Amino acid sequence: MEQRKNVLAIIGSTRANSSNLNLVKAFAKQTTPKFEVHIFEGIGNLPHFNPDQDTENPPEAIVAFRKLIAQADALLICTPEYVFSLPGSLKNAIEWCVSTTLLSQKPTGLITASASGLKAHEELQLVMRTVEARFTEATTLLIPGIKGKFDTNGNLIDEPTIKQLKAFELAFEALLD
């Protein structure tokens, strides 16, 4: 049997038990035979990006974050939209990688799940294209109205979204081949 691929999931929300976290957990559960999904939970603890600190000795939290990215076979970024844009914590995390080649050609899945999410989804694709991450239209997914797609226990129950997530999974798997 083929070894499962190591996927690092980065959640744009810092909220505990966010819809984005629940969505990634649903993805991890449905892809267990294929992927080992590790959820990065420290996005809110990363220091603010400062080019003066992005030297040979960046902050320890950044060294650890970059190591997780380097060790991953692929990235999954799942984010809400805040004020028609990316959350500052997600943009900050990406900015800490700009001076590296860590994201260059890294297979990446991009999910924006929010009330609307359209502007953040466009921005996420632009930013990830700029850092040369490797993704396709099929490995991007916009899910508007995300909160109504879960039951009170955080389980994904919306059938159209479940089908979209399955199609996304297949495209993501193909990106890693």
Question: How would you describe this structure to a colleague?
Answer:
The protein is of the alpha/beta class and 177 residues long. It has one domain (5-176): Rossmann fold, CATH 3.40.50. It is built from five helices and five strands. It has a five-stranded parallel sheet, sandwiched between helices. Helix 4 links the parallel strand 4 (108-114) and strand 5. One of its GO terms (molecular function) is oxidoreductase activity. This is NADPH-dependent FMN reductase. Keywords: Oxidoreductase.
Quick recap:
With 177 residues, the chain is of the alpha/beta class. It contains five helices and five strands, in the order βαβαβαβαβα.
Uncertain parts: none
Q: What's the structural domain tally?
A: 1
Ends: how far apart? 15 Å
Helix amount, in percent?
Answer: 25-40%
Number of strands: 5
- The succession of helices and strands, N to C, reads EHEHEHEHEH
Q: State the CATH class.
A: Alpha Beta
What number is the mean pLDDT?
Answer: 96
With helices defined by DSSP (H or I, 4 residues minimum), what is the helix count? Answer: 5
* Beta content: 15-25%
Instruction: Output the strand order for the largest sheet.
Output: 2-1-3-4-5
Question: If you consult CATH, what is the topology?
Answer: Rossmann fold
* Relevant CATH superfamily: Flavodoxin domain
The rounded Rg comes to: 15 Å
Tell me, briefly, the overall form: globular
Question: Which structural class fits the helix and strand makeup?
Answer: alpha/beta
Largest sheet: 5 strands, parallel
InterPro entries: Flavoprotein-like_sf, FMN_Rdtase-like_dom, NAD(P)H-dep_reductase
Protein name: NADPH-dependent FMN reductase
Pfam families: FMN_red
EC number: 1.-.-.-
